[in-house]
Amino acid sequence: LCSSFLELHFQPPCSCCLRPRSDRAMVAREIIGMLLIMVAGIGVTSIVILSVVIKELGMPYYTLVGVAIMVVGLCEAGYLASRGEFSKVELRHIKWIWMRGVCGTGTLVFGLLAVQTGAPVGDVSALGSVNAVVAALLGRAFLGEPLGALHIAAVGLSILGAFLVSKPQALLGLGPSGVAVPWLGYLLAVLSGILSGGSFIASRKAQAVSPLMMSFSVCIQETPVIILLPLLNLVDEVPLTVLVGSPLQGASVFAGLMLLVFISVASMSAGSQLCPAAAGSTIYTSVSMALGFAAQILLSSETPDVVTLSGASSMLLAVCLMAISRRWYSPKLPSPQTLGPVVGSPASAMSESSGATAAEVDDEDEIESLASFVAAEFSGLSASPKAQAARQRRAPAVAAAVCPPVQAIGWATA
Prior knowledge:
By secondary structure, the chain is an all-alpha fold. Helix content is 76%, strand content 0%. It contains 19 helices and no strands. The protein is globular.
């Protein structure tokens, strides 16, 4: 029995087990995150699609979804308060929690307004895929890093796709006369896509924060905006009194919206924290685009033409190229000489015990840090050599701030 136990628990590890446990855990986290992003893509797109369905049923969609979001937010607030999560939030995470709410609100509201102004649901989903390309251009602008061949190809495909989706026949005067092109809806769809990229970044920058806290931020900011849309006559809405004649139907729709809102927002927050923005954006765009065009065919009997499908495929390919470029252009791992003291040394122990202080010092360089993070998450771009040299010059100051003088000198002379 003892021999069997030793053979079972102390046999030499196979090659697949030689991989560090942390790497395996990271891969598992990213897979779970991708699945959650897929659920979020289905949920958010379904909320936009239901804006058409519920309005056709003669029910006040914006009022129902606004109240549903408010109820979900209040439930999340009660749960977070009972767990003491509000007191655990660090000051440096507040801006990312707020940004997650702003970007989540903008993504949904602009998507709804795009459909309200006449843009097909499939086209809105396709045009929303510009977030990864915008992130690459942002990295180029802030970091001074030249775009690679994959980046340039992605930018070109994205521009071409947006042109094809936005009905070039009408733009060039080749289509039938009298066909109105919802330019405002297309612009709102692009803005919705850009802000969805901000949701990924905000969640990734606050991975230590509870996903429900991020969801609560979205709900508490979405509620007043959604409810105000019909009050400001920005959207068409039937009066709330129509629910008196069909209370059971209204209650069923409200319960369904509330469940859909919770699943969508919570899965988006949790999934964005677990997987890189490039992978999340690719999955989110693919799911949203497929579901959007399916709804456009089934609900509106409007089959996308070859030009529109070609544009959507071009934009999806651009997002995939951005995801590939993140792996292709990611910087190589530094050598052990550049990693600092060996694990287990006194200097290493001091740096580990004071990691929070170093993180707070690094967090002060907001513009460079955020631009580097966005570019790395979406496209694999890194800071230029000049910026990296400046960051290395700041390293001694960080070391002096987190280590006693004798420790710092010993580290430097080792």
